[in-house]
Amino acid sequence: MLISMDLNASSLPEDDKDEEEIFGAQVEEEIAHEEHIETAVETMHREREERRQRLKRDFPDEGPKQPMREPVINNTRFYEKNKLPPGWLDCPAAGDCIGYIIPSKVPLGETFNECICPLFEAKVGLVIDLTNTTRYYQPSDWKKQGIKHVKIACTGRDSVPDPESVNTFVYEVLKFYSRRQKESNKYILVHCTQGHNRMGFMIVHFLMRSEPLSVKHAIEAFQNARPPGIYKQDYINALYAFYHERKPEKVFCPNTPEWKRSSDLDLNGEAMSDDEDIVAASHDNQVPTQVLMNDDFLGDAIPWDQQGAMRQICYHSRKLGAGANQFPESHPVSLNRENLQLLRQRYYYATWKADGTRYMMLTYDGCFLIDRNFNFRRVQMRFPVKPTNGRDTHNLTLLDGEMVIDTLPDTQEKQSKMRYIICERWEMLEKEVIEPRNLERQYINQNRNPYYRYDLEPFRVRRKDFWLLSTITKLLQEVIPKQLSHEADGLIFQGWDDPYAPRADQGLLKLKYPKMNSVDFLSEVVDENRQLLYLYERGKKKMMDGYHVDFKNGEDPSELSGKIIECSWDSEEQVFNCMRVRVIRSIKDNITEEVLLEEIGDIVRLPMYADRIRNDTKAHSRKHSGRQR
């Protein structure tokens, strides 16, 4: 036993009896204290009661409190300082099932499945943990019972879960749903700390993406299952903003529950902190750039294994073999004197070659952009189907297009909106994809209470116009340089009756402007690793003395000896950059714009063109005269 000395004690002797009585009282008090050591739970109950009494004295007019359901937790075990989450004891244990989802506060202890499941007479097969700490329980306790545990750490407090975490949550739930149909009927236990804001935010996202609900109805569905629902205004505002819906004026945020208000203050009336109150550094002082680029990152990342499944969807829709991981776009081949003859054999249309970034777009339980690396990112876009009823949207629709940046007329200022141009030329796309969006947007704009805001979408969508070959001169000299609202770097020729062909389409032809054109070289490596470049000009092999190719992707030039490489010119470094290795066996002559116009002048006089041009001219003139470029 440690004995302390009181340095403020009097130097005069005291009465022995008084000293003995004082000492005896101290000994009895210490013995009593040793006989009963207050546990952590008792300490929490005592502090909670003291805090309640303090709040009653400070706020006597609050009225009676609503009775709270006692949590059903056995064999409680504490981690890290034996500290319960603030407000956990008085927070209701769980809510009603939402489909196969059990919304719950964080369970504590080892026998979690026995504690929670009897409330629903259900068996848990998956636990999704949204807390930002690992101190509440050990994930291995779930795994010992054959229950899968998924950790999606979310900060909490005033920070809503980020979009990537939302995508992961929705994917895990959907994956469990599909597996649940094959296995026994198991449920998903979802929890944050108290089981309201973060968890509600995630579940509302899931409902929005799995059922035809508005944000208002999805929030109400969670609120009915787990009262009082989401009680933080920032979370509710973020949901409406994410799905581009207008928040109704009569939507009110629920009041903070009593158990939460009392738990936010300690015994001194100060705000209590928690292990999860870790907020990312603020970036308010950073000024975002206003200049958009067509290769800016758009959308939110999705789980890696979800990408694998969606790649197979793309391959199946394009009727390609499963298992490959190559971008299934249709890309053109360079126009040369040999394939120029295809314009005489089939009925072709022409359009501009947009100087943008190539993306495919897939609608499948949402909308996803697919880049050339075959990576998927989710974007919040809406593609209604005909007839427009405000709910049904496209599903399993795969589009091919280009992302560009439009400029305002007569200025060089960048618009705040990007534009996705669908490159496929079928009229069906205009009627099935573009027109329903335009009709719904017009209907919503005329409504006093629009439920969806197209102006908040990350980019606009339109189908590229295709022009008769007889108008190719106008396209080159007037439309592209004077009327087009984004950059173009050449022409595209597409057979009007040709089907879509993934990968290199030998019937899809491109002519790039000379200043932007890439060059095909025959690369050879000779003695002492000296690189030689050859260019075919008018059918003859010509050595390019004094020029060098830079391999920025780390290719070994010796391994490319004897192969054809496509290169672009870097005017600043005065060097060619290797873009890709070509699969063609020989280099073809590039064709000039002058030769092209001369050839097309003869082609459009052919009977197969003359008849169809006469039938299409009037319709095309009316269509293009009133459309903004």
UniProtKB/TrEMBL annotation:
<dbReference type="Pfam" id="PF00782">
    <property type="entry name" value="DSPc"/>
</dbReference>
<feature type="region of interest" description="Disordered">
    <location>
        <begin position="43"/>
        <end position="70"/>
    </location>
</feature>
<feature type="binding site">
    <location>
        <position position="358"/>
    </location>
    <ligand>
        <name>GTP</name>
    </ligand>
</feature>
<dbReference type="InterPro" id="IPR000387">
    <property type="entry name" value="Tyr_Pase_dom"/>
</dbReference>
<dbReference type="InterPro" id="IPR029021">
    <property type="entry name" value="Prot-tyrosine_phosphatase-like"/>
</dbReference>
<dbReference type="InterPro" id="IPR051029">
    <property type="entry name" value="mRNA_Capping_Enz/RNA_Phosphat"/>
</dbReference>
<keyword id="KW-0342">GTP-binding</keyword>
<keyword id="KW-0547">Nucleotide-binding</keyword>
<dbReference type="GO" id="GO:0005525">
    <property type="term" value="F:GTP binding"/>
</dbReference>
<dbReference type="Pfam" id="PF01331">
    <property type="entry name" value="mRNA_cap_enzyme"/>
</dbReference>
<dbReference type="GO" id="GO:0006370">
    <property type="term" value="P:7-methylguanosine mRNA capping"/>
</dbReference>
<dbReference type="InterPro" id="IPR017074">
    <property type="entry name" value="mRNA_cap_enz_bifunc"/>
</dbReference>
<dbReference type="InterPro" id="IPR000340">
    <property type="entry name" value="Dual-sp_phosphatase_cat-dom"/>
</dbReference>
<dbReference type="GO" id="GO:0005524">
    <property type="term" value="F:ATP binding"/>
</dbReference>
<feature type="binding site">
    <location>
        <begin position="510"/>
        <end position="512"/>
    </location>
    <ligand>
        <name>GTP</name>
    </ligand>
</feature>
<feature type="active site" description="N6-GMP-lysine intermediate">
    <location>
        <position position="353"/>
    </location>
</feature>
<feature type="active site" description="Phosphocysteine intermediate">
    <location>
        <position position="192"/>
    </location>
</feature>
<feature type="domain" description="Tyrosine specific protein phosphatases">
    <location>
        <begin position="167"/>
        <end position="237"/>
    </location>
</feature>
<dbReference type="GO" id="GO:0004484">
    <property type="term" value="F:mRNA guanylyltransferase activity"/>
</dbReference>
<protein>
    <recommendedName>
        <fullName>Tyrosine specific protein phosphatases domain-containing protein</fullName>
    </recommendedName>
</protein>
<dbReference type="InterPro" id="IPR012340">
    <property type="entry name" value="NA-bd_OB-fold"/>
</dbReference>
<feature type="binding site">
    <location>
        <begin position="400"/>
        <end position="402"/>
    </location>
    <ligand>
        <name>GTP</name>
    </ligand>
</feature>
<dbReference type="InterPro" id="IPR001339">
    <property type="entry name" value="mRNA_cap_enzyme_adenylation"/>
</dbReference>
<feature type="binding site">
    <location>
        <position position="372"/>
    </location>
    <ligand>
        <name>GTP</name>
    </ligand>
</feature>
<dbReference type="GO" id="GO:0140818">
    <property type="term" value="F:mRNA 5'-triphosphate monophosphatase activity"/>
</dbReference>
<feature type="compositionally biased region" description="Basic and acidic residues">
    <location>
        <begin position="43"/>
        <end position="68"/>
    </location>
</feature>
